[in-house]
Amino acid sequence: MEPIIRVRNLQKAYGNLAVLSGVDLDVAPAETVSVIGPSGSGKSTLLRLLMTLERPDAGALEIDGESPWTMMRDGQSVAADERHLRRVRGKVGMVFQHFNLFPHMSALGNVTEAPVHVLGLSRAEAKSRAIEYLAMVGLEDKAEAYPAHLSGGQKQRVAIARALAMQPKIMLFDEITSALDPELVGGILELLRALAARRTMTMVIVTHHMAFAETSSDRVLFFDRGVILEQGSPAEIFRSPRHERTQRFVESILETVR
Hints:
Blueprint: E1 5-14, E2 17-27, E3 32-36, H1 43-50, E4 58-63, E5 70-73, E6 76-79, H2 82-89, E7 92-95, H3 107-117, H4 123-136, H5 152-164, E8 170-174, H6 182-198, E9 202-206, H7 210-216, E10 219-224, E11 227-232, H8 234-239, H9 244-257
Parallel strand pairs: 3-9, 3-10, 7-8, 8-9
Antiparallel strand pairs: 1-2, 1-4, 5-6, 10-11
């Protein structure tokens, strides 16, 4: 089976600060991958590159067999045009730490907007799809509520429904519980577990919740200083890591939550 995400020697720097220093990664269709590691190790930057919010300085990146940045024309590889970039980008959805909802729109409006303007759905089709995904995240009764009247956890659920309504092949989640009050975190993690169990899309999840990564992932990546220092099954990473750095990180996180 061909990987749906293929990354080779991916590099990214901001000024003199190297954030990614040669990342290689394959992710299979419908695989759930958790990404762990210390702050500043490159985890979120990887997601931003996968989402094509930024371009790498070097290396190759393919989404579902295609590069976002180049395309074939008359048998030759040329720079991608906007139409190609939009099409490849449409295969990927992302949910951020902060919800980025439109404050002047209801939950239903927030979820409806992109399918209309990006996918070209009719308003009626988009509304029907939005109601379906709001129900999936447990907010069917909040469809007409505005963000100012929603809790942090509810706002994040709307953001997840909004991304799902685009029906991407790949979903990226960047520390989506970090801005939430502790009592709201469990509900969002349960939603992610349910999405992973459906096996309908590939999920890459940057998280500091080790229990979630251990119980809900097919594979765990440990990032450190811009590289994937170690990867393996949850049991391998959390119970018998090969690298001493991975072991120290896991032990420090577990000690913090005890």
